[in-house]
Amino acid sequence: MDINKMINPSREIDPSVYAYIIPQYPPKEGWVKIGYTNREPQVRIDEQSRTIGVATKTLWYHFARFNTGEYFTDHDFHAYIEKHKIEREPKTEWFNFGPGKEDESEELFMKFTFKKYDDVQKGMTSSYELRAEQEKA
Prior knowledge:
Layout: H1 3-6, E1 16-21, E2 31-37, H2 41-52, E3 57-63, H3 74-83, E4 87-88, E5 94-96, H4 104-113, H5 118-121, H6 132-136
Antiparallel strand pairs: 1-2, 1-3, 2-5, 4-5
């Protein structure tokens, strides 16, 4: 047995976030599954499709990395989605973008990877008050 064939120490792991829908299943109309994998995203989506026994449609997949190079997980992106008031099915990775609006999930992903948080920070205020000398500075 050649151990070099069993272990590939130079294989890079590039985690990805992926999104898919179940087009022929009315109860999930408008809902988008957003997951995370360290493997090929389409392979993971196909596995889940077989598990649930219905055809899925891949919307998109991208590396789980900010434009600055840092990595993130799907939990980080899920929190960002929730801050945009997108309904989440409890304890799942399913988000209700609404029928015909599923592609907005990718737009949100792109904003997230470029750290565009201004739309979720609008209206946020702080009760902190500057001291007089800080105010003058």
